[in-house]
């Protein structure tokens, strides 16, 4: 693996360019400390295919495992990054099958660079789950021990709620229009481009940075749209024979409100493959916690928090609290509906009315540590949690903006 890396920095994740079958591939790498008996998790993103969207999510996965033999490598899709087109002088676009072959090549390269006893876990989000399953089809006896499918689009993607809309969009508007739009946006001053993205998408933090400065490029957008077209045409009926044979290798996570892999996809799998491992969550953990980057764990020491930045108005927070000889967690979500119009503070013996623009208001839930990671990753209904397991209480919390 090391022989394929250039321009890396010595902190995790390592941001590297990996040469795979002659293709310059952008990656995120959390290397294992051990050199033998490794387990390598290969993460395959959904469309738009930029692995940088998943940095925080993968960091949490790496931290939660904390094994010296555990390694993570996340790979961007072929042609879905600016550097690919600049380094390769390639303006081509790639199909879904091209992306599958690219991931097969990634696996083959990793197999050559590691010991024969290395175990591989493929983790895919959305169409990345379909690609992961396709890699297993191509390499059924090459050390793939598990596939973790996050909100998987494994069948009939064109008739899902989002699929219907996207199918209409990509088959109505030519690819060159998206490319031209990317060309115009890429010519804007970076701060102004970032402002426009935040205005129209509501993104913040690292997700905003990725969209504004890596996604909005002519060739990248054309590849995103081209891949979407192929997804609609390719992902049809489920291969029942394949899943019957390999069901024991799959762990699938669905969302109650996902519009790409709706709940009826979960129901379908449960009906046809009742012995499978399925979990249904309230929110898309990959999208909520990485694509939009609105969640922050707060540590009293910034050295323990990677990529520290200033607190944003729309950030959710998690604080650890030690009380009664026990550690609990306080989950804070911004909720300005809780602001009391008559709220006052006492200063120098006087009651002063609070100016809403000077404060942030949060609904704070006290959560048992056993349940904290689950709620933090999966999300929860901010207004309907009092009776849920592990919720010990809640409070309205008002914080000055200058703190």
TrEMBL record:
InterPro entries xref list: AB_hydrolase_fold, LDAH, Peptidase_M12B_N
Ranges for domain Peptidase M12B propeptide: 295-366
Highest taxon of the lineage: Eukaryota
Subcellular locations according to the entry: Lipid droplet
Keywords linked to the UniProt accession: Disulfide bond, Hydrolase, Lipid droplet
Sequence intervals crossing the membrane: none
Keyword Disulfide bond assigned: yes
Keyword Hydrolase included in the entry's annotation: yes
GO molecular function, one term: lipase activity
A cellular-component GO term for this protein: lipid droplet
GO biological process: lipid storage
Similarity comment: Belongs to the AB hydrolase superfamily. LDAH family.
Listed name of the protein: Peptidase M12B propeptide domain-containing protein
Annotated organism of origin: Rhizopus stolonifer
